[in-house]
Every structure is written in structure tokens, then in C-alpha cells.
Design a protein that fits this description.
Layout (H helix, E strand, L loop, with lengths): L3 E7 L3 H9 L7 E6 L6 H8 L5 E5 L5 H15 L4 E4 L11 H9 L5 E5 L12 H18 L12 E4 L17 H11 L4 E5 L13 H26 L4 H30 L5 H27 L11
Parallel strand pairs: 1-2, 1-4, 2-3, 5-7
Antiparallel strand pairs: 4-6, 5-6
Helix pairs in contact: 5-7, 6-7, 8-9
Length: 316
Amino acid sequence: MICVAVVIPAYKVKAHLLKVISKVGPEVERIYVVDDACPEGSGKCVQKECSDPRVTVLFHESNQGVGGATLTGFLRAWKDGAHIAVKLDGDEQMDPSLIPVLVRPITEGKADYSKGNRFFSPEFLSKMPSLRLLGNSALSFISKISSGYWRVMDPTNGFLAIETRLLGVLPVDKIDRTYFFESDMLFRLNTVRAVVADVPMRAVYGSETSNLKIWRILIPFTYKHMRCFLKRILYNYVLRDFNLGSVQGFAGVGLTAFGMAFGAAAWRTNADLGRVSPVGTVMVAALPVLVGIQLLLSAINYDILSEPRNPLHLQL
């Protein structure tokens, strides 16, 4: 029988935490509440007021971030013998009744990791704040590029499940501990060729206050996505394998860069001399750019078709 565990990071969610725990159904055998040095004393509150025998409270001496709290719970669940670990936020924005649906792609052997997708249906988006909708749409596209999971949407969705055996092959000590955790997980999963599945879900927005401030994470997220993209290209197209996509990508970048640099230099020289650039010079600049862009498009198509499709945990 498959053992499912739920991990609830607890930081400034004391007002919602007990209600969230009470909604977790009987399909879950273990519940781990990780008090991430919460100033409200969420963990102690659960120990005092919650009588659910499935609940274990873990404490951090210092705040590690939502990713750090989640990983602490995941590793404990794996150690205790759970087959699947589910991350469930403590602010009531996720419906615990959807846990059986969330874990189904893993239990059926179709995926190693599953996550919620609030963008699956227009009806799911009706209550999402406009600014959050716009921000998540942009982040989804950027994440597709950096992670390589082109069919996955809503990368910052924290309602997720993982087959715990993957924790043995992932570089857990390198996974981001901050709000970038979900995006970094996708990048790390791609480097080990794990299969990720999207599960439609409806988000709930109520009186809770988010600890995430857009202006604080905009620049760090951009930098981290660029870093993940460059690492993924290095891992998948140089170190692990050098294939047709590698040739197309590097040739495309080289030709495009050469054409643009040559064209800019020629234009500057001719402008200084007060003359129009010769047709031949224009063609020498334009042709590499056109060919380079075509090669880059082919490389992107190769990358899309290379998305992992064979679940890794079945091979472990």
C-alpha cells in the first residue's frame, strides 16, 4: 500500500493552520508541520491544540524559508517510509480534498512529480487577482525556458507532490530554500530527467496575507532563472550529451552574434565615411543572422521534444 505524507510549512499561518490540518483526508497517513522559526509559535500551537495522531511537529531554530521547511518535511517523510510527500501550504489557499487527484499521476506510474495548475481552465482564474495573474503568466513562460518543462504551467504553484525516492538522486543541499523553491525544483528535476505532471486545481483567495513581496523577488528571480537556464544547457547539451540540439543552439548563437556584430561595425564605419553600406556588406551581415535565428528556433523545437517522458522512480 502506498503511504502518502503531507508537509505543511508553518510561518505566520497560525490563524489557518489547525483548520487546514482538519481538512486533510484519511488517504494521508502522516502529517508533518514544520515550524520555520515562526514568531507566532505555530508549532507549539499545533502540539497543544491538535489531537490528530498523524501529526508530527518539526522545529527550525532559525528561519530557512518555505523551501527549507518543505525539504525538512520531505526528508523526514522519506526517512519514515512514506512513498509520496505532498506540500500543502498552511494559509488555506489549497484544497486538501484534491490530494488524491494530485498524487494520482505518481501512483499510476505516469510521473515522478506532480503540481497544481491554476491556469488549466478560465473558470479557475476568475478569482485570481489581476496582478497575480499577470505575474504568474510571465513567470510561467520564463520557467519553461529555464527548466525545460515546456508543457508545465504555473511553476510557482506550491501545491505539489513528489515520489520520495527522487530525494535520493536530487542534490537536496543545492535546492533553493527561498520562494524560488518551486522553480528551482523544476530545474533540478529536469537535470535528472524526471517526469512532471500538471494537475488542474482551483486556487482559493480569502483573508490570508501573503509573505511574498513582488518587488523583493523580481530581480533575484530573474537572475536565478538565467542561472538555471545556463546550467541546464551546460548539463543537458554539453556534459551529459552533445547532440543535434547542441549543434543547432551553439551554431545559431554564433552566427547571430557574428552577423549582428559585423553589421553594427560595418554600419558604423560607413556612417563615419558618409556613405551607404554596399549591398554585399548588408548581405554578409543579414544572412548569418537569418540562418542563426532559424537554427535557434530548431534548437528550441529540439528542446521541447526532449522533455522527459519516462518516469524516473520506476527505474530506481
